[in-house]
Amino acid sequence: MKILVVDDEPDVAELITLAFNLRWQECEVIAAGDGETALKLFEEQQPDLVVLDVGLPGISGLDVCRRLRQRSDVPILMLTIRGKLTDRLKGLDIGADDYIVKPFDPLELLARTQAVLRRSRLQGVENSARIVVDENLTIDLGESKVVVRGESIKLTPIESRLLSHLVNNAGRVVPHDVLVARVWGVESRDDVLLLKVHIARMREKLSDDARNPRYILTERGLGYRFARISSQPRVVD
């Protein structure tokens, strides 16, 4: 496994490298101290995972994440000293797979890394189908997009995993903590507010009226349920 660590603080980069080498002795860690170098190394080395600091000199970590996501589905774990929900959503919205706040425990970093890698592997297995829900909505999990009334709309990796889990459990209530753990990892199990924000944004992309939803239904106090519309969703090869 090859990991690209992007952080302008040498001590932090060294700590991350040490943690990964202790956990996966066979892994190769490549370090970059700025965004421009990170983009260059990514093209040259094609890493399996990117650990990316938000506050970089020159090109910001958010811009690096955005550019990487335009060309690759590589798992990206972002680091930041800002822990507000709005700051976390910025990174997740542009394609980051997870977000960890500095200062962090190396054990937490390893646990979140394992969760991101596990979800990435599962997504490759599960998200291979195009599902026709009804005449207005087609979900293409393989391409991470939805087609709403003929218009193709791209999903972020987080949105794709969230929708995949809801659709795979269509007709059944998925509890809040189960959804959060499945999409963001067990470490985030209690972060229900983050889930609610993403559900709201998913409904916007599906043109699903939050006051009277057709697809993603709220089971108050329990979780969410993806409704089957008129008939069972049809999987198209």
List the helices and strands and how they pair.
Blueprint: E1 2-6, H1 10-23, E2 28-32, H2 35-45, E3 49-53, H3 61-71, E4 76-80, H4 85-93, E5 98-101, H5 106-126, E6 130-132, E7 137-140, E8 145-148, E9 151-154, H6 157-168, E10 173-175, H7 176-184, H8 192-205, E11 216-219, E12 223-226, E13 234-236
Describe the model.
The structure is a single chain. With 237 residues, this protein is of the alpha/beta class. It folds into 2 domains: 2-124, Response regulator (Rossmann fold), CATH 3.40.50; 127-236, Winged helix-like DNA-binding domain superfamily/Winged helix DNA-binding domain (Arc Repressor Mutant, subunit A, Orthogonal Bundle), CATH 1.10.10.10. The protein has helices at 10-23, 35-45, 61-71, 85-93, 106-126, 157-168, 176-184, 192-205, and strands at 2-6, 28-32, 49-53, 76-80, 98-101, 130-132, 137-140, 145-148, 151-154, 173-175, 216-219, 223-226, 234-236. The chain has a 5-stranded parallel sheet with strand order 2-1-3-4-5, sandwiched between helices. It has a 5-stranded antiparallel sheet with strand order 9-8-7-6-13, with no helix packed on it. The protein starts with a strand and ends with a strand.
Task: Provide the gyration radius in Å.
Answer: 18 Å
Number of helices: 8
Q: What is the helical fraction, as a range of percent?
A: 40-55%
Strand order of the largest sheet: 2-1-3-4-5
Assign the CATH topology of the largest domain: Rossmann fold
Q: Major sheet: size, sense and barrel closure?
A: 5 strands, parallel
Distance between the termini: 32 Å
Mean pLDDT: 83
The CATH first-level class of the largest domain comes to Alpha Beta
Question: How many structural domains does the protein architecture include?
Answer: 2
SSE run? EHEHEHEHEHEEEEHEHHEEE
Oligomer classification:
single chain
Pick out the low-confidence regions: 124-128, 229-237
CATH superfamily of the largest domain: Response regulator
| Principal-axis shape | elongated
CATH-scheme architecture of the largest domain: 3-Layer(aba) Sandwich
Structural class: alpha/beta
> Count the strands?
13
State which percent range the strand residues make up: 15-25%
